[in-house]
Design goal:
It is found in: Mitochondrion matrix. With 371 residues, the protein is α/β, with parallel strands linked by helices. The chain has 16 helices and eight strands. It has three domains: 54 residues, no CATH class; 184 residues, Rossmann fold; 100 residues, N-(1-d-carboxylethyl)-l-norvaline Dehydrogenase, domain 2, CATH 1.10.1040. It is globular and about 60 Å long. It binds nicotinamide-adenine-dinucleotide.
Length: 371
């Protein structure tokens, strides 16, 4: 490696074209030079760009230096996701306040966290149960609870919201918290399907607002999507990336685009499986009620994706696991955003099951029966 580098002509610091230029010259291609690029003498443009580069790298360094190191986290919503986020944050040395609407809900969340921590401890400290007990006690002692979000955000570094998936309710919450939270506090939403920008707009701190999308179950799933709106500052973004890493997660980033990365690919795939199953000619559609015709059966589609694509679950199994109402809710939201996009078209079969309250595993029936 080093030898090849020594034989190469010096690289242009702006384009790294040195080696490619040499290759072109060997093949009789005259390298195109733009002023200031790869010339023997440094031109003014070159010097200016170098200067800008060093200034911007030093300002990037100073922005990074000002990043918020999140120590104190307020998690709003003690349901499935919020409890998981609180657990992981506390287990990784953060001080956490978990907020929900009633003491009863918070007691259940706390119990759920304790049960989950005991499972973690059993595995992690299999050889040393005493250390496992200490880990559980220490983690639980880092979590306090409250039913009054406004009263606890005055000195928190980060608010992670994981409440009901409803824009008006999220907006109202953030609008109120904006008045009580410290100036430096970052706000983040764990929404799966709403636009982060439309939540951030309820506040006056759009630069300190981003998406922080965890996956279920939070203690097990490694991924976190960090979503940057056009208003999110680099400092906020980097602080959230660091926080995700501190949780032991793997952050990926994307713009404020519907479904972010995972759901944008996953939900259309699930919907396409439903369409494949319900698709047919008008005659087939008419007779589908009697003969259950489609391009393929749900059992065969599930088997095909497991054995042919190596997926751990087939799409219908996954739909039932996630909850058919959740998928329908996401699709309806996207369809509203762009009614013409064929990927965002609603499915009659899915809508019918949801209307019949057959929501998947949680109700005992969805595409499959679980009773
Ligand atoms: N469930 C998932 O697989 C999943 C995955 C990623 C993201 N999300 C997102 O996370 C958020 C929460 O989802 P969940 O599955 O944990 O829901 P959930 O219903 O299990 O929990 C929501 C909790 O928020 C509480 N709550 C509602 N309004 C509140 C308010 N104003 N103040 C305080 N608490 C309030 C509820 O009492 C409930 O305990 C949603 O935005 C959802 O889209 C869910």
């Amino acid at each position: 490696m080093g030898g090849a580098g020594l034989e190469s002509p010096p690289r242009c610091p702006l384009t790294s074209r040195g080696r490619r230029g040499a290759r072109r010259r060997r093949h009789g291609v005259r390298p195109q030079r733009s002023p200031g690029h790869c010339g023997r003498r440094p031109t003014m443009a070159f010097v200016t760009r170098q200067f800008v580069r060093s200034v911007s790298s030093s300002s990037a360094a100073s922005a990074a230096a000002k990043k918020i190191i999140v120590k104190h986290v307020t998690v709003i919503g003690g349901g499935l996701m919020g409890a998981g986020i609180a657990q992981v944050a506390a287990a990784t040395g953060h001080t956490v306040v978990l907020v929900d609407q009633t003491e009863d809900i918070l007691a259940k969340s706390r119990q759920g966290i304790e049960d989950s921590l005991r499972k973690v401890a059993k595995k992690k400290f299999a050889e040393n149960p005493k250390a496992g007990d200490e880990f559980v006690e220490k983690t639980l002692s880092s979590i306090s609870t409250s039913t009054d979000a406004a009263a606890v955000v005055h000195s928190t570094d980060l608010v992670v919201e994981a409440i009901v998936e409803n824009l008006a309710v999220k907006n109202e919450l953030f609008k109120r918290l904006d008045k009580f939270a410290a100036e430096h506090t970052i706000f983040a939403s764990n929404t799966s399907s709403l636009q982060i920008t439309s939540i951030a707009n309820a506040t006056t701190r759009q630069d300190r607002f981003a998406g922080l999308h965890f996956f279920n179950p939070v203690p097990l799933m490694k991924l976190v999507e960090v979503i940057k709106t056009p208003m999110t500052s680099q400092k906020t973004f980097e602080s959230l990336v660091d926080f995700s890493k501190a949780l032991g997660k793997h952050p990926v980033s994307c713009k404020d685009t519907p479904g972010f990365i995972v759901n944008r690919l996953l939900v259309p795939y699930l919907m396409e499986a439903v369409r494949l199953h319900e698709r047919g000619t008008w005659w087939q559609e008419l007779s589908a009620a009697f003969f259950s015709l489609g391009d393929a059966s749900k059992e065969d589609i599930d088997t095909a994706m497991k054995l042919g694509a190596g997926y751990p679950m087939g799409p219908f199994e996954l739909l039932d696991y996630v909850g058919l109402d959740t998928t329908k809710f996401i699709m309806d939201g996207w369809h509203e955003l762009d009614v013409k996009d064929p990927m965002f078209q609603p499915s009659p079969a899915l809508n019918k099951l949801v209307a019949e309250k057959k929501l998947g595993r949680k109700t005992g029936e969805g595409f499959y029966k679980y009773k």
